[in-house]
Design goal:
This protein is an alpha/beta fold. It is built from 15 helices and ten strands. The protein has helices at about 15-25, 85-90, 95-100, 120-125, 140-145, 170-185, 185-195, 210, 225-230, 240-245, 250-260, 265-285, 290-295, 300-310, 315-325, and strands spanning about 5-10, 40-45, 50-55, 60-65, 75-80, 110-115, 130, 150, 155-160, 165. The protein has a six-stranded mixed sheet with strand order 2-1-5-6-10-9. The protein has a two-stranded antiparallel sheet with strand order 3-4. A two-stranded parallel sheet has the order 7-8. Helix 1 (about 15-25) runs parallel beside helix 6 and helix 6 packs antiparallel against helix 7. The longest helix has 19 residues, at about 265-285. The protein starts with a strand and ends with a helix. Mean pLDDT is about 90; it is low at about 210-220.
Length: about 325
């Protein structure tokens, strides 16, 4: 049976964010012989009240045909942002209506928030002692309201196992694609991203959008260097080599790179190599030694260390888990 995702529509919701789960999960199709072309998720929308109208922050309402009891059937619950959270936003507590709705959720259900939907998860106690993120403009308020949550305002999303949170607005797309990739692998996530006309993975975090949403036109970019590096990940790449692609000094290149991408060139390069290793482990029968070489880590020990740091598992366990989940 398809994995069932219930999207909780709250008054004051943002229509764009409400549509993200349906667009990403609803378009995810199987790529294995046993499920090729079949929908991998069933996405349903529900309200905290009996079926009826739900207000949006736009000039229209939507009609939601399912009530809160739908949450009891969900494998994953997604909570998009709302501009009418009331005491959830001002006092950090659930309304009686929300508390009654959350009582339907089964233990072990995966919980996901988009943007300030994280306030609802925090008020319900799901984020106590956990790392989480939200829209950068709300991060300080969120941290003050929920001091027990470890807030990271710079990242696009945080995956803490059974509870996942995304930063503002479009970062919900990044998080949903990540979940598809976690559930069904890179090939399925990339296919959805291509058909949605979005990148399957965005570099850096939301920090890059706070001070300078668009690089100044008169400044050179580091795009060519990144393209050059991606074409030779299996070879040694020095920082000065990347800087030379843009005819910049190492110091200037490093500063521009961080401004554009949100992380240092070395951090970015490591992430790209981890992603390459994941793809090879998922889609090929190459030995761990060969995967390490093709991804640019050189040795199995280096691959193991970087994969453990990034994903918390060894290459062997990652490959076994991926294939077991799709056998």
């Amino acid at each position: 049976m398809p994995h069932r995702i219930a999207v909780l529509a709250l008054d004051g919701l943002l229509p764009f964010e409400l549509g993200i789960p349906q667009r990403i999960f609803g378009r995810s199709l199987g790529s294995e012989p046993r499920n090729k072309g079949r929908k991998l998720y069933e996405v349903v929308t529900c309200s905290v009240r009996p079926p009826g109208p739900v207000r949006t922050d736009a000039d229209f309402t939507i009609t939601v045909e399912r009530g809160p009891e739908t949450l009891a059937t969900a494998d994953t619950v997604v909570i998009p942002a709302s501009y009418e959270l009331g005491p959830v936003y001002t006092e950090g507590r659930l309304t009686d209506e929300l508390a009654a709705a959350f009582a339907h959720i089964r233990p072990g259900t995966r919980m996901v928030s988009i943007c300030t939907g994280s306030y609802v998860l925090a008020a319900a106690g799901y984020l106590d002692g956990r790392p989480a993120t939200t829209h950068w403009s709300s991060a300080d308020h969120f941290q003050q309201l929920f001091p027990e949550v470890r807030v990271d305002p710079d990242v696009l999303f945080i995956d803490d196992g059974d509870v996942l949170t995304s930063a503002g607005v479009a970062a919900g797309i990044d998080l949903c694609l990540h979940i598809v990739r976690r559930d069904h692998g890179t090939a399925v996530a990339n296919d959805v991203a291509r058909r949605t006309v979005v990148p399957p993975h965005r570099d850096g975090g939301q920090a890059q959008y706070i001070q300078r949403p668009v690089p100044e036109a008169q400044l050179a970019t580091t795009t060519s260097a990144r393209t050059w590096a991606l074409g030779r990940l299996e070879r040694p790449i020095l920082l000065r080599d990347m800087a030379q692609q843009e005819s910049m000094s190492v110091r200037t290149f490093t500063r521009r790179f961080r401004e554009e991408v949100g992380v240092s060139p070395v951090q970015w390069l490591t992430r790209q190599r981890v992603e390459r290793a994941r793809q090879l482990l998922e889609s090929t029968d190459l030995s761990i030694d060969q995967v390490a070489r093709d991804a640019g880590f050189g040795t199995p020990t280096s691959l193991r260390q970087h994969l453990q740091a990034a994903l918390g598992v060894s290459p062997t366990v990652y490959r076994r888990t991926f294939r077991a989940g799709r056998a």
